[in-house]
Amino acid sequence: MSKGKETPRQKMIGMMYLILTAMLALNVSKEAVEAFKRVDKGLTKTIANYIKKNDITYAAFDAAAAENPEKAGAWKTKAYDVKTRADEVYNYCQDLKVEIVTKAEGKDSEALLPDNQIDISKVKRIDENNIPSEVLIGSNLTGKGNDLKALMEDYRSFLVETLDGKDLSAEKSILDILNTDDPKNLEKTGKEDWVTATFQTLPLVAAITMLSKIQVDVRNAETDVLNFLYTQIE
After folding, report:
1. What pTM does this model have?
2. How far is residue 66's CA from residue 63's CA, in Å, rounded to a whole number?
3. pLDDT for the residue numbered 195
4. How confident is the model at residue 20 (pLDDT cuts 50, 70, 90)?
5. What is the per-residue DSSP string for 124-191?
6. pLDDT category, 65, cuts 50, 70, 90?
7. Beta strands at 112-113 and 117-118: parallel, antiparallel or unpaired
């Protein structure tokens, strides 16, 4: 099973996100906002691919444990522990997206689909930039972005502990893609809070896309650790 590293397509999507964020900072809003929709759709497809790939791996754990419970049973348990933790962070991101769209457009928004899903192409208030900050940052910097950061850090630590120093390449990948360190503030000395730096002043569509990117990272990290655990059976 191959490592869950970023493909060229994922790297391109990530680069597009950075470029579009810069465009928004320059107030090239209409073009950037529409482009964010396309990026989010790409991320959604990437997420679906990771879920499909990981489901195949979980099925492989099931089969291995059924065939040899003594040898594979413990590794299957560890794998499903990873799934539980990954789902926790992933679902929290999804709940945040639904909350943002609901607050912006109401619970009857056409963009809100069954099973807690969102159709970004049907979001009408795509350039609304107050509600995302209200939800994620909060008036006193106590928004839900802090809870998301804590979940990501806890998930990252759990994955690294699960690797137990036996796959340094996967460990480095996880530390990189789930990095929540406070970045340097380019306009001032010192550093800027990760939550503020990640979500401040983003219009709704960009905030949704950022949360989708985090979901991709969560599934990517899940894949890395699942692959490691499966090799332990063999």
Report:
1. 0.86
2. 5
3. 94
4. low
5. S-TT--SHHHHHHT-TTS-STHHHHHHHHHHHHHHHHHHHTTS-HHHHHHHHHHT--PPPB-SSSSSB
6. very high
7. antiparallel
Percent of the chain scored above 90 by pLDDT?
Answer: 68
96-141: per-residue pLDDT in tens? Answer: 999 999 999 999 999 999 999 999 999 999 888 899 999 999 988 8
The answer to whether 224 touches 170, Cβ cutoff 8 Å, is yes
Nearest to 133 by CA among 212, 199, 206, 180: 199
Integer CA distances (angstroms), 82 to 11, 60, 170, 224, in order: 25, 15, 14, 11
Token pair for 8:
């060229």
Sequential DSSP letters for 191-227: B--HHHHHHTT--HHHHHHHHHHHHHHHHHHHHHHHH
Residue showing tokens 């655990």: 229
What's phi and psi for 27, nearest 5 deg? 65, 25
Q: Are 13 and 49 in contact (CB under 8 A)?
A: no
The number of residues making up the chain comes to: 234
Cβ atoms within 10 Å, residue 21: 16
Q: Categorize the per-residue pLDDT at 24 as very low, low, confident or very high, splitting at 50, 70 and 90.
A: low
Query: What is the number of other CB atoms lying within 10 angstroms of the CB of residue 48?
Result: 11
| Element housing 7 (H / E) | none
